[in-house]
Amino acid sequence: MSAVSLALWAVLATVISPALLADDAGAPCQRSASNTELARNPAEQFVTPNLKRFYSLDENIKAAYAARNDPEVVALATEYLNLAMTYRCNWNYGNAVHDGNRYLGLVSLHAGRVENAARFLELAGKTPGSPQLDSFGPDLDLADELLKRGQTIAVEHYLTDVKAFWRLDHGQVDRWLAAIAAGERPTLDKFSAVTNGPWMTAGRLFDLAWPEFIVLSSLFAARKRLNSKPSYVIVASVIAYGAYYLFNRAFRSVMDPLILTQLARHGPTAAWWALNLSSVLVVIAAPVLAVFGCLRIWYRRMR
Questions:
Q1: Deepest of 82, 213, 242, 283, by most Cβ within 10 A of its Cβ?
Q2: Could you report the per-residue pLDDT of 45-103, keeping only the tens digit for each?
Q3: DSSP percent split of the chain into helix, strand, coil, nearest 5
Q4: What angle do CA 33, 37, 42 make, to 5 degrees?
Q5: Comparing C-alpha atoms, which of 157, 151, 137, 143 is closest to residue 187?
Q6: Spatial contact of 155 and 149, defined as CB atoms under 8 Å apart
Q7: Structural element, H or E, at residue 28
Q8: Within 13 Å of residue 224, how many CA atoms lie on the same side as its CB?
Q9: What pTM value is reported for the model?
Q10: Which of 13, 6, 94, 86 is nearest to 48 (CA)?
Q11: Quick one: which H or E segment has residue 22?
């Protein structure tokens, strides 16, 4: 498709997208029901082909965008927004509003239509949120690119809207807004907000300290029976850290998809918390069992 045709696609999408976001106040929103495809989280038997399409479009758009197929991105994103108006009570509605407009904005940037892209960014910010957006936060690639191009007003409006639903930003959105107000151009990256939060910092400290804490605790408990204490500490530490990280990687590779599925479909419900807590407890137990086994072997060697 030519650049002129692509630009026309972008103009058309600019006209279509706001209409797709208009709320039909007369349509019932069955947020608590599960016996219809229009519910927030329909039971499996009510997931129609149309609803399956709605769930799959985000990955399809992502693949088209990665392939630099901008006309396909526009077509899929517009379809995503159309379906969002049908499933406006669905848990995925907020994702569709945000990402449908975000991808249209990115395509507009490819076509050199910066003002259209800024408009799409503001529309993306009008999402009510979703289980993913509320926790992990939105992708900020469009906002970051527009900020580099001097579209500060649109970015400020967008970030202000984002604050309303992103509960785990750890104050990063406010820091970005303050920096922009001061004339700076910070890099907008949702992962910086997640990884720099106090809980993530505490988690990294725990990763470093927990295996060694188990080793030193075992050393203290068995101090009267152990010989070659320095050698024991070295060997037990290697085993404890090895078990912790290897078991963490293996177990999380199995559990993370289940946890993310629960988060995507239901938010942080009891099932989500149960899965997350069980994975944490099992991983924490790994160095305990490893050090216990090391201690038993050490006793046998001493006999």
A1: 283
A2: 889 999 999 999 999 999 999 999 999 999 999 999 999 999 999 999 999 999 999 99
A3: 75, 0, 25
A4: 55
A5: 143
A6: no
A7: none
A8: 1
A9: 0.65
A10: 86
A11: none
